[in-house]
Design brief:
By secondary structure, this protein is α+β, with helices and mostly antiparallel strands. The chain has three domains: 112 residues, Acyl-CoA dehydrogenase/oxidase, N-terminal domain (Butyryl-Coa Dehydrogenase, subunit A, domain 1), CATH 1.10.540.10; 99 residues, Butyryl-CoA Dehydrogenase, subunit A, domain 2 (Beta Barrel); 164 residues, Butyryl-CoA Dehydrogenase, subunit A, domain 3, CATH 1.20.140. Strands 1, 2, 3, 4, 5, 6, 7 and 8 form an eight-stranded mixed sheet that branches. The chain has a two-stranded antiparallel ribbon with strand order 9-10. Helix 7 runs parallel beside helix 9. The longest helix is centred in the middle third of the chain and has 38 residues. It starts with 6 loop residues before the first helix and ends in a 13-residue tail after the last helix.
Length: 391
Amino acid sequence: MEMQLSEAQKEQYHLFRQFADEEIAPYAARFDAEEQMPREMIQKVAGQGFLGAVLPKDVGGMGYDMTLFGLLNEQLGRACSSVRSLITVHSMVSFAIKRWGNKGQKTAWLPVLAKGEKIGAFGLSEPNVGSDARNMETTATKKGESYVLNGVKKWTTFGEIADVYLIFAMLDGQPAAFLVERGQPGLETKPIRGLLGTRGSMVAELQLKDCVIPVINRVGGRGFGFAGVALSCLNLGRYSVAWGCVGLGQACLEASLAYSQQRVQFGVPLKDHQLIQQLLTNMYTQTKSARLLCHHAGLLQEQDHVCAVQETLVAKYAASVAASQSATNAVQIHGANGCSSDYPVSRYHRDAKIMEIIEGSTQMQQVMIAEHAHQMFKMGHRLDELIGQRG
């Protein structure tokens, strides 16, 4: 399968790459070192309309299809995983309000999120709860016309600066989703520093202590907090991260190709050593394969295909593993230089490991993909025929 892009998509893709090369890549190392994302960068991204990528034009969004959204994430991920992570979490919150929000929430939040005037963050993970998100410890209690939230959320990307948080909590024993604004009494944010990778994504811990919000801030119906809101957001997040991994793998490949042409060992450029050629070949083929899997998943999502969620899982799993392996190879090709912050592959290596954890760890995805394959096999389906089904 080859990627079939329209002329408009190709043109937009080149614009994405140009913006990434000129406005993001030169500053990525600084974001990593300072563990900050300057407001100026966020404003640049917002000025391009990228924070409204998944929102329709009638609320000020870009109305990108899933293929174009994927290509955007690839190019931003190639330049800086922290900038790409902003697109991921902000889009997840925007998508949740667009799909599950009430009329008041849509009116109040979608236009400002689309323009990047307000930043959204996704609060699901907790200190004691990661992959087992259905057993979260944060609670919501209804009191009159309000909900009272208590608990702690951790690893919240851009939680340090977000204006609105999509918080998940247990309400009467069932997961529910709520919008909590920055500055709400009872909400405190604590920056988390010293992370392995994506250090510019301003991760924070959110502490909710008798945080009172109005009833109208609940997103989605009762009982739909996890099965509806969370899973649909995570599906979008996985897709975004998967494409970002393709970009990260591409960055590793491009850096390694350039270095292997310039570096001379034993009288010849590194590129002429067969074992270096082997590493480059693996990087090239794994990145290309991951790109095609992501493109395939995007097409299925656009069609509301019955296999769209499953194929997004496959794409995220394959792309994150490929990015991690490519980053390891890139460091190996660079040798001691690859361990230095003077070369970007050191950052790529750290960022790539994060990709194997966020939006579903490699191991959780292996479990889910294998279970799905077994179920389909028991039902008598030929797995190679499933792509012909429609939802």
